[in-house]
């Protein structure tokens, strides 16, 4: 028979543990915006930002060139023609440039598309600013319709010396639910 | 007498070496040092870590096995009573920690090198598809698909497997030696991964995002790799072949490729016969469609419908064209309009409508396909 | 009936009669038994899938199954072994042993204990039934990366998600129960630092479980929403990112693999001292080492993602943190060896499994250290080198740990000794089979063979054939294990309360078989 000893147990209520469970479940979902915030702040996964508002006059760096390549891809369910007008441009940091992309709906029905940009190397993404981009909105094209879409951008003058070339890639996705809902 | 024997000796020694080389490859136990500076760095790092592990293992297991041998009850030993020592704990925490620091230094240096994609001379976009690769030479305007070229008969054990079984493609990625090549890796559908062991490049291909890798290959040669991320049923059947050529040979290849693209455009404009379309169509079908719909058109229902006797292949040609060009969203049927040329499209549609007893008798001209795609 | 003094007089009844006993039981011993039998059945089911895989990989070419079905086999094999065999087996051991080891009469929440078990057969019946549904079973790997597992998944993916939720709930409830039991119900004199190491490792494992299983629940919920409710967590089209899936999954996934090994560490830490006739070396250090491993397990997840395109700083951080885990793990190995050193060892079956655990798990640890080196991982990632690594830590790690535990404690559970000769045979056949299967995988992985492929280039053929032979040996041997267990239960030699030579622990102070209710009054601990 055990004598009366001071109980060395530090009791815990199981209820408290449920709190941990609930908290970690929420943490899992919190990882989603957290991931986006970290990527936005650091430009780490090549995602470029939203429309860039130019607040003051930009200083152009005349001492160097940055080569910007443009390339396009279609995602699996996207049959449109989608090509860049310029495959490569040499630009001065700080100078606003304009180029175009042509998209054509080669199918027999109206479709909605979303272009998603990605920059390589990813650490250059935070230095590529778009003042006007077709990727800001969804594109709706009727059957057979084609459109020339502008991209207005500049490379930040603060871009590190080691980046002399960067590639801006657009992937075009089909948004069938959006198209279905808009009919 | 000896002089007569020498050619025979040369032949037999030569063939023995060749034989043993290929046999040796079968029992390969180690990573390849590869052909680039980076791959050699990676290999060296791998060997250093390996030998450190062997050394630690030898010491630890040595002590253990000695103990198993010498400290057995059956030998009549009495067990000692020691059961703790702070000093010893500190030592065997600190020593491994120091060894790790020693490993981390060359590892860090190798990683920094592998990440340095700046100042490239050739840029190639690599896109992973289910289940093939697409190579796009940015700034050259050259692009093509690269499909597994091992015959289905070899895979299904109806023909002897050749030396490069599952590691051969119809169109290799051709690159020049001694130039810094930057790879931009992305995907069309699911995540794939582009891997060539001999240049120590492995990069995941993620739909909607572009990853970077680089290499400089000093030696002409053929280097083979495979997809390294589960991507669906034919993940094991989408290999990579890189062919490194001298600058001169590469330049010739590039010119040839551009001319071939121009020729394909010319072919689009001419009038084709049914037989011509069938002949071309069979090849296109084998490369692009047979993986899912089978060589005999039987498919793998329900995910991959049969084409033999199907409503689409024997119904109105407009619907058939539409599904080949635009795909069927929500299923595995991709949009082949952007992937194949008008000649290939016209040929494969014609083939599907007339093969395996479908015998519709109708066919479509490449120029009509091109006009459909261009129509307002 | 029992020679034990505890008797609370009024309603001392034995177990209920008939099959319904098992449905309604809230007794930790019964529930432990249910978990163990369930996990063994799942082990055989998952094992048969491995046999299909190895049969197909016996030779180059497609002989037995088509690639679509092969992908279902690899996926289901992983899911069943991880969630159906290893985890429930450890929970079963926890149920049987923890109350006895801490001098408690039962688990803290006996009815929740019953629920935790019974939802498992339901979940696995659901998961296994997908094999017979249109579209086939899940085929996207046990790691189910998006978008292969969302946009491109068969329709059965929804059942998969449901099954994962249920298994997760079972694990979470089990973990809560274990924490509550250990922290609330120890016999008063048993301070935390007097607990057996098996209890310690399970306490730490249980905290890991409640921390990360909810994250798994979160990620499969996100999948469900992407598939059915038009969200874009993992699709770039809607502003999401497939790599986000990998981050969230592996945030769960890495601690998960430690969840699958920590209890085995505890088991081995109980067995080696007994058969060395020497106390465990460095008890305090072992507790700290296990805690460090658990803590570090939260900050290394992206070492599963070295080829995904992480920024350099991130890649370096995860490389360093992963290498760091080798330190506390090494400390544990050294402590086990120091326990054996200058002991007086005998090598009964539990000791054979425990000693081979130390050797072979360490080999798995070495390949893990090699994998941690990020630039070299570019050559190892998604190859058979990884498959070799994790099978070395899981098979001679977790599974041998479980075998060792069963041999060690079965006489306590059922009152009879197992046949020692047959036990040793099971060990040697398993040891040979396991090594024959997985050692060659290091070679083919290094030589360039990727994972998850049903067919391979010719230079990989020879080692694959050896691996398949080893797998068949290993698989067949497990039927011998079943025979040994049943034979022991039915007509093994009677066991004493102590069973072994002066083992430490409260469970050896009660009769064998352990009475249905034990420690209804808290025992003394010196």
Please provide a written account of the structure.
The complex is a heterotrimer of chains A (183), B (376) and C (526). Chain A has 183 residues and is an alpha+beta fold. Chain A contains 2 helices and 9 strands; from the N terminus they run αβββββββββα. Chain A has a 5-stranded mixed β-sheet with strand order 3-1-9-5-7. The longest helix of chain A has 29 residues, at 14-42. The termini of chain A are far apart. The model of chain A has no long low-confidence stretch (mean pLDDT 86). Chain B has a 5-stranded mixed β-sheet. Chain B has a 5-stranded mixed β-sheet with strand order 4-10-9-6-7. The N and C termini of chain B lie far apart (83 Å). Chain C is mostly helical and 526 residues long. In chain C, 66% of the residues lie in helices and 0% in strands. Chain C has helices at 20-24, 28-56, 67-102, 110-129, 157-184, 197-228, 242-259, 262-276, 283-296, 312-324, 326-340, 349-372, 374-380, 384-414, 420-446, 461-491. The longest helix of chain C is centred in the first third of the chain and has 36 residues, at 67-102. The chains are: A alpha+beta (183), B alpha+beta (376), C mainly alpha (526).
Briefly, what is this?
With 183 residues, chain A is α+β, with helices and mostly antiparallel strands. Chain A has 2 helices and 9 strands, in the order H-E-E-E-E-E-E-E-E-E-H. Chain A starts with 13 loop residues before the first helix and ends with a helix.
- Work out the helix count of chain A: 2
Radius of gyration of chain C: 23 Å
Domain module tally of chain C: 1
Oligomer: heterotrimer
SSE topology string of chain C: HHHHHHHHHHHHHHHH
Q: Which bin fits the share of residues in helices of chain A?
A: 10-25%
Task: Report the count of strand segments of chain A.
Answer: 9
CATH class assignment of chain C: Mainly Alpha
Largest sheet of chain C: none
Regions with little confidence, pLDDT below 50 for 5+ residues of chain C: 1-11
Count of DSSP strands of chain C: 0
